[in-house]
Amino acid sequence: xxxxxxxxxxxxxxxxxxxxxxxxxxxxxxxxxxxxxxxxxxxxxxxxxxxxxxxxxxxxxxxxxxxxxxxxxxxxxxxxxxxxxxxxxxxxxxxxxxxxxxxxxxxxxxxxxxxxxxxxxxxxxxxxxxxxxxxxxxxxxxxxxxxxxxxxxxxxxxxxxxxxxxxxxxxxxxxxxxxxxxxx
Amino acid sequence: xxxxxxxxxxxxxxxxxxxxxxxxxxxxxxxxxxxxxxxxxxxxxxxxxxxxxxxxxxxxxxxxxxxxxxxxxxxxxxxxxxxxxxxxxxxxxxxxxxxxxxxxxxxxxxxxxxxxxxxxxxxxxxxxxxxxxxxxxxxxxxxxxxxxxxxxxxxxxxxxxxxxxxxxxxxxxxxxxxxxxxxxxxxxxxxx
Lengths: 184, 192
Known about the structure:
The structure holds two protein chains of two kinds. In chain A, 58% of the residues lie in helices and 2% in strands. By secondary structure, chain A is mainly α. Chain A is elongated and about 55 Å long. By secondary structure, chain B is mostly helical. Chain B has one domain (4-183). Helix content of chain B is 56%, strand content 4%. Chain B contains five helices and two strands; from the N terminus they run ββααααα. In chain B, strands 1-2 form a two-stranded antiparallel sheet. The longest helix of chain B has 34 residues, at 112-145. The chains are: A mainly alpha, B mainly alpha. Chain A binds chain B through residues 48-49, 51-52, 55-56, 59, 79-80, 115, 117-119, 121-122, 124-126, 128-129, 132-133, 135-136, 139-140, 143, 147, 150-151, 154-155, 157-158, 161-162, 165-166, 169, and chain B through 45, 49, 52, 66, 75, 116, 118-120, 122-123, 125-127, 129-130, 133-134, 136-137, 140-141, 144-145, 156-158, 161-162, 164-166, 168-169, 172-173, 176.
């Protein structure tokens, strides 16, 4: 499920410790972006409108590159396989940060990996479901307590929910998979 | 997955996929109708919480998965605590709380094949919900870029967020069960 041939920032992901640091770094980056925008009170992006630049940045760039799962080139193989190759005459995979020795043949999931992918999504879905219900309950409390805060809380919660939905399965996989042998 | 639905003491055969699909369509139509009724009266505020009660009731009576009753076995594979007698009042009268005896534990435990089906359904549901939030994200971006659209559809941003969270919660509580009921082929009838 995890491609050791992909090395973001030149780091080998064969060791679980390295992968856990990558996951921690990803979530810290998400938190940092959130805090930076949230602290900038005078910004036009503030007051609930800051999802405009943040979410596409996370979803389109950081998730595929740092965690994978979405498309070819990340540490986690694409969940849906590789159905489209931009340069079919070139077999090596290019990544945005770091390098990769993987080929397009390395990204297809075998039977075991497909079962592992489904199982991880079950756990992630269960967590996300409780999170959605919890956020809804907290949003109701915030709206009842101070309606002026509800928009800010709503946009922050939406950011957290989208981030979780798009990156939790990959994070679980990278966090839990034991140490691996480096691909030749 | 269970082949029959026990509704208020009456057994309904749900082995045929067509019946299960009709049930899924009817349940979602009902939930949408309830949301449509609540929206103009209170803009989902206050009474929006009733949607969650409705979803829990739908899962308890029909879908299962997150509740011990319903067509889909509990996802966590745990049987509810043993009951040797029914609820003496409403439950007994309506027969919605039949007793759970020690021999019934297999009714709640998924075998290997069912676990794979459960995981696959959750994967498919996850993809669906992930795409749904992406669509909402794009709509939010468009709404942010076009200030004149901020007044559409006549609700404030806070109510819109409430609607989004409520819709997501409803979807996340029901979608895997709906996928399982929709995709599972007709069940074979076991010999008596």
